[in-house]
Amino acid sequence: MPVTAIDSMRFRSILGRFATGVVAITGIDPATEGPTGLAANSFTSVSLDPPLVAFCVAHTSSTWPKLRSAERHCVNILSEPQAEVCLQLAAKGSDKFAGLDWSTSPSGSPVLDGALAWIECSVESEYVAGDHVIVVARVHYLDKHDDADPLLFYRGGYGRFDG
User: Fold this and answer.
1) Residue 1 in this model has a pLDDT that exceeds 60
2) Is the peptide bond before 30 cis (omega within 30 degrees of 0)?
3) Positive or negative torsion for Cα 85, 113, 138, 73
4) Given CA atoms 45, 48, 50, 51 in this order, what sign does their dihedral have?
5) pLDDT-derived band of residue 92, with 50, 70 and 90 as boundaries?
6) H or E element that contains 158
7) Mapping DSSP to helix (H, G, I), strand (E, B) and coil, where does residue 145 land?
8) If pLDDT is split at 50, 70 and 90, which confidence band does 78 have?
9) What angle do CA 55, 130, 140 make, to 5 degrees?
10) What are phi and psi for residue 93, nearest 5 degrees?
11) I need a surface site. Which of 9, 65, 105, 163 has the fewest CB within 10 A?
């Protein structure tokens, strides 16, 4: 059967039926020495040996080049009460850390208060994939941080797990 054109809105609608967790990728921008970050719902573990994770970033991201130039990054697994944090980090052209409380990972990357866990990593490799780049990152440190329900993304909205 031949492959047909796939409407992007239908594609989003169908794939939106797959619930995902939400993470914030944070780091210190070497140019400003200030914190920056972005939100992502495409995050997964890749390997135990060596410890690797992966996330996807849109080519249009203005934050990823700043994060990419940092030596280390921190993946913050967001909790259900952090929906507003997620929206703030997803916004373009704003002070993404205005009003956010955070501490630091061992190498100084931002660990967001309220995150369920954090994973400090560095870029191992990148793969261009359509309108995104797949980033594979080596894990250096990780720990649990807060105890709450996860923030979930489902059918275009944010929610929680009631189980």
Assistant:
1) no
2) no
3) positive
4) positive
5) confident
6) strand 157-159
7) coil
8) very high
9) 20
10) 65, 25
11) 163
Please state, in angstroms and rounded to a whole number, the distance separating the CA atoms of residues 162 and 105: 30
DSSP characters for 47-108? ETTTTEEEEEEETT-SSHHHHHTSS-EEEEE-BGGGHHHHHHHHSSSS-TTTT--EEE-TTS
Asked if residue 63 lies in contact with residue 36, where contact means CB atoms within 8 angstroms, the answer is yes
| Distance from C-alpha of 13 to C-alpha of 53, rounded to nearest angstrom | 26
| Rounded Cα–Cα distance for residues 135 and 56 (Å) | 6
- Residue bearing tokens 């793969």: 127
Read off the amino acid at residue 27.
G
Q: In whole angstroms, what is the distance from residue 67 CA to residue 157 CA?
A: 26
Q: With cut-offs at 50, 70 and 90, classify the pLDDT of residue 76.
A: very high
Label residue 12 by pLDDT band (50, 70, 90).
confident
**Global confidence as pTM:** 0.91
Q: Angle at the Cα of 19 (from 75 to 73), degrees rounded to 5?
A: 10
